[in-house]
Amino acid sequence: MNNLSKNIKYLRNLKKLSQEALAEELGVHRSRITSHEANRTEPNVEMILGLSDFFKVPVDILLRHDLSKSNGTAFIELGNQRVLFPIMVDSDNENLIEIVPIKASAGYLAGYDDPEYIEQLQKIKLPFLPTGKHRAFPIKGDSMLPMKDGSFVIGRFIEDRSDIKTGRTYVLVTLNEGMVYKRVMNNIEYNGSLLLMSDNKTYNDYSIPIDEVLELWEFTCSINTQEYSVEELKISSILGLFNELGIELKALENHLK
C-alpha cells in the first residue's frame, strides 16, 4: 500500500485540497486521511473505491503506480475516468520519445493505455522537437509515399480534437482500423468524422467516426531507415511526385470550397 499512501497525498495536492477538505468530500474524519497518507493504516475496500471515484483514477493505477513520478498532464480522460499517460523523462528531466517497434506494433493497440507496456518500450531523445508529448511509430506499406515502408513517424500527442488541422498528417490509433498514418480532413463539425487520405492516390480515401479514434499523433518529423535509390532521386521521379501532390492539393482545395 506504499504507492497508495503516496498517491492520496499527490492527488490531493494536485487538486489543491487540504486533508480536511478531502475528508469532507469522502465523508470521513481528517485523521483517516492523515493516517493513510503517512502509511500508518491501510484503507479498506470502501475507502479505496471512494478515492478511485473521487479522483477518477482506476483502482489498479492507484495501487500499482507511483503517480508522484508523473506530472499533472500525465492523464488523459477516457469516459468518466482518467488513465495514466506516462511521460518518460531522463536524468535532466527532458522528455524521452518511446519507440513502437515494427514487430510489436500490433500489440500497441492492446497496450497503448497500459503504463507498464509503455515503460518497456525503447526510448530516444531528440532535443530539437517542439514542446509536447511525442512518440515514434513504424510505417508499413506505400500509401504515404515518399515515406518508405519501415520508416518511423514521430508524432505529437493531440488531446483536444478541436486542434485537428485539415491537410496535416497524423498517426491514428483506431478501434476498428488499427494503427494508420494518413492525411486528415477534419469533418467533425459536419458529420462527426475524419476523412483519411493517402498521398499515394492508388489508395482510396475513407471516413472514420471520431468516436472510433483512440489516439491522435500529429506529424512532427520522420526517420528514414532506408536509403533512396538513384532512380528515386532522379529529377523525373521528383517531378512526378510533385505532380501527384499537386493533384492531391487541388482535390483538397476543392473539398474546402
From TrEMBL:
The keyword Transport does not apply. PROSITE patterns: HTH_CROC1. InterPro entries: Cro/C1-type_HTH, Lambda_DNA-bd_dom_sf, LexA-like, LexA/Signal_pep-like_sf, Peptidase_S24_S26A/B/C. It holds the Pfam family HTH_3. It comes from the Bacteria. Keywords: DNA-binding, Transcription, Transcription regulation. GO terms for molecular function: DNA binding. Residues 8-62 form the HTH cro/C1-type domain. This is Helix-turn-helix transcriptional regulator.
